[in-house]
Structures are given as structure tokens and as C-alpha cells.
Design goal:
single chain, mainly alpha, two-stranded antiparallel sheet
Length: about 250
């Protein structure tokens, strides 16, 4: 284990990336716990205000991201400064993406249906960073044996193939499958060979003159969403908290 850690994490300079990912996830979890306690009226926590203005945690998140980002650029990635900068950057990114939906909608939608986009952004970001961390690229590793070169070459070939399948899945309107397929073998392949979602670039390009294919795509998307919408919402609620119910609309659209 120690040899693997040295060869694949320390020697290629991936320790700052690992610490940034750990800080990112820990900050997101702690932030969600605190905000849920505030929402429930429990614990010693409360909203931060200055001059009557609610200071969202995206504000210190931006500060930490800027400090950590510039600190990482100015520091040696193998030195203490690079490690500290990576942790600060991970913390800032966790705070910023926890309010990704607020930035997207320019409105306080944290506990609304639109706020689920923040959870999705965090999960997808963690998956992509995990892919970078788990990569078996030989760059930065010295004196590789023939067996190590073969192992890493095979891993790189698999990753490259999965990446191509992920691009096809992305063009078919399957963003989540594309991201996780780049990490988990065969997931991207399944997304690449299945029908495209209606309105996706693939569907517009290849289903334009194929009414049967368009109809099958619409039917399959409907069945897929109907089957997986509830489990996906349950997972999102478990991670980020259940959103507030939408207010009932009065007759006449008011």
C-alpha cells in the first residue's frame, strides 16, 4: 500500500489534488448539515447578515477559491504552500458549488426544486475530479518497469475508449451517464448504444428524417424518467435536503 501511495499519489504530485477533493467534499457535507440545522431551527447556527444583507456562503467560497487558486499557481505543488492552497481551493469550491443554483438563477433558490442543481453540480464535479485522481497516466512517475508501462498503457486505453463512448452519450443528451461512464467501465457504452433523448444534438442530427426513431426516443425517455425520477429525487433529498413545496397557484395563474 505504501509503495502504491508513493508511486501513484506522491510521486506524480497528486497529493494536492487528493487534499483538494477531500476538502471539497468535507466542506459540502458540513455546509449542508449546518444549513439543514438552520432550516430546522436547531443548534447554535444562524444566517450571517451584515447591514441587513444576508451573506450567502458563496461569498466566502469565492474568496477562498481565489486565494487558493492563485496560491496554487504561485506555489510548488510538492511543497507545503501548494498543499495549503489546494485545501483552501477545495473548501472554496465546495462553498461555491453548494450554491451553484443561486448563481445560475440569480435568486435564492437553495431550498426549492431548482436548488437541486447545486447537488448535481457537486456530485458531477466530485466524479470528474475522482477520475483525474484515479488516472493511471505515467507522467511524473520515474523509472517505470515494463510491467508498469503495460498496466498503465492498458488503463489509459480503457479510459480513452470510455471517454469516446462518454462523448457519444453526451451528444445523446445523457450528461450524467457521460460523466459517470468516463469513470465506470461499460456505463458510457450503454449510454452510447441506447436511443438518444429527444432534443439532443444526436436526435436532431440522425432522427430528423426517421419518425419511428423519434417516436421510440420520446417513449423511452418518458418511461425512463417515470421509472428513475423518484429514486433520483430520493437520493438528492438525502444528500441535500428536501426542497420546499411549491406554493399552490390560484385560478387564473395568480
Amino acid at each position: 500500500m505504501g509503495h502504491w501511495w508513493e508511486r501513484n499519489i506522491v510521486e506524480p504530485g497528486k497529493l494536492p489534488l487528493l487534499l483538494a477533493l477531500a476538502a471539497f467534499l468535507l466542506t459540502f457535507v458540513v455546509t449542508r448539515v449546518i444549513t439543514r440545522l438552520i432550516r430546522a431551527g436547531k443548534g447554535p447556527f444562524g444566517n450571517v447578515k451584515a447591514g441587513g444583507v444576508h451573506i450567502h456562503h458563496v461569498v466566502p467560497g469565492v474568496v477562498l477559491t481565489v486565494v487558493g487558486g492563485f496560491g496554487a499557481v504561485a506555489s510548488d505543488r510538492h511543497g507545503t504552500g501548494g498543499v495549503v492552497a489546494a485545501v483552501l481551493f477545495g473548501m472554496g469550491a465546495g462553498l461555491v458549488l453548494d450554491e451553484f443554483a443561486l448563481i445560475l438563477h440569480l435568486d435564492d433558490v437553495y431550498w426549492t426544486e431548482e436548488g437541486r442543481k447545486s447537488v448535481e453540480a457537486v456530485v458531477l464535479t466530485a466524479a470528474l475530479v475522482g477520475l483525474l485522481l484515479a488516472g493511471f497516466a505515467p507522467f511524473g512517475v520515474n523509472d517505470l518497469t515494463r510491467q508498469e508501462l503495460q498496466d498503465r498503457g492498458g488503463a489509459l486505453s480503457t479510459i480513452a475508449m470510455n471517454f469516446l463512448f462518454a462523448l457519444v452519450a453526451l451528444s445523446k443528451g445523457k450528461a450524467r451517464v457521460a460523466v459517470f461512464g468516463a469513470i465506470v467501465p461499460l456505463v458510457a457504452l450503454v449510454g452510447a448504444v441506447r436511443l438518444a433523448r429527444p432534443g439532443s444534438p444526436w436526435a436532431r442530427r440522425f432522427y430528423g428524417n426517421r419518425p419511428r426513431a423519434r417516436a421510440r426516443a420520446v417513449l423511452r425517455a418518458y418511461r425512463h424518467d417515470r421509472r428513475w425520477a423518484a429514486p433520483r429525487r430520493a437520493v438528492q433529498d438525502w444528500i441535500g435536503g428536501k426542497p420546499d413545496p411549491r406554493p399552490a397557484r390560484l385560478p387564473g395563474g395568480r
